[in-house]
Amino acid sequence: MTTIAISVKDLSKKYDSGFAVSHANFEVPLGTICGFVGPNGAGKTTTIRMLLGLISPTGGTAEILGQSINHPDKYLSQVGAMIEGPAFYPALSGSENLKVLATLGGFPIARVEELIRTVGLEGRGQSKYKTYSLGMKQRLGIAAALLPNPKILILDEPTNGLDPEGIQEVRDLLKKLASQGTTVFVSSHLLSELELISEYIVMLRKGEVVFAGPLQELMQAQQPLILVKTQNSADLQKVIEIAEQDGHKASIRSEVAHIEGPEEWAGTLNKKAFEAGIVLTQLAPQLPNLEETFFEMTGDRS
Amino acid sequence: MIRVILAEWRKLRRPTLFLGTIGAALFFTGLTSIFLYLMIDSERGNSDRGRQVSREVLELAGGSVFGFASVGGLLGVIALCVFAAQTAQEYTYGTLRNLLVRQPGRLRILAGKLIAMKLFALVLVIISAIVSIGISVALSGRAKVTTDLWFTTSGFHAIGQTLLNVSISVIYFGIVGMVLGLLFRSPISSISIGVLWLLIIENLIGAVKPVTLDWMPGNQLSVIAQGGSPDVSYSHALILGTLYVFVGSIVAATLFSRRDVAN
User: Fold this and answer.
1) Nearest to A54 among B93, B95, B261 (CB)
2) Cβ(A124)–Cβ(A97) below 8 Å
């Protein structure tokens, strides 16, 4: 039995304008939560659509639960998905929308009310979809993805439009599903959220995979940072020079000096700054986080 | 396949769509049937395009369904709108991706949707037939039309034949709508282009050069509903109409099964 939920080999999608996804390679082990990150237009949704058989790759291949994406009928009954936000019939109620999909997929209709409760839409299931707020639509999309009791859950921006409480609920739900053995492949712009729940990360930039592997491995590969503010902003450049003299890369972003260096060197910096007559108002060693790492690797600050 | 049909039926049976469509069909059916009898002595005619339908014609075995056959083309336009909207909205709402994730067999989705919509169209046709025949019976006395032959064996045969012809015509119109929906992927575009062509462009071209009506797709489908017309025979309309629908279906099915679903 395969231990790999998603295996992507040299997968490409080329349009007239160029590659949307170019020779992507990555694997997602079963039972993990995998964050799928990349700037807008990096090719995340195109990759997800290829995995779900909605668009055909122009090169390479991929397997879901050991089945080729050329035969989506062999694995989609075990996959739940929400792609590029929720999409339902506005004139039908939330509950009726789910019943359409349950009927189509051959899932028990009784599961619909259960899922309405699971995603916190109880009392609004009979309301027309067009009356739903963005957060409610998102919850219904997650409910639809859960209909098949999936082995793999593929979610594209599931927390869009949710309030902080809703985001936390989704986070807890995904953790719970993963603990029950469901593989969760989730793309999100909320990198801090992904960092909290993901064990694996696939990072895309301009259609190419720039990292794929355990989150821990990604973080360990990154240099810790020391963030420095000075009383006189003109002194920031002097701080940069001190850092560079000691062999540390440094730059100024938004009137804060970002210095790559271990926590221990912060003391040395403090001493040298004092000797140079620079008053530091902030000296904060910072472990690398996913957001910083993402910016470093994708060069995207949008 | 059954699951696709049942899922599609859940959408079709919603009251606003179902009652709205039936209401529109009954409006046109009622209007046509009522005019046929109440304006029987009018010099401006009592049928479509100002044609005069006499008492003698209405007293024939097929008289009970004359009004129903006349409205067949309009029922077809209604079916075209419903089929086009139901197909194209899957693209505009983005719901096609949900359907294909739950049922990856694209041709199965297409066939299931078509069968469900055909059933919907048949319900529409049957209700319209009942109402039209009812109005004809109710107004025949006032219009001094004898109904002795209407419910004889040949009368029932005429009712069955007209029901079949109108059903074929309405379903063909619907398939044309579905094809347009798949091609244009927008309800507004597919409906407006379909209706514009059927109700305006064909008639304009036909008015300028009547011989073209022998080949116009919309005219063939309307003639099927009427069981033939003075200008186009039933068999010609049936063969040509079937050919148009067949070719359109093949093109649309090929596109649907191969095209990327990117919205």
Assistant:
1) B261
2) no
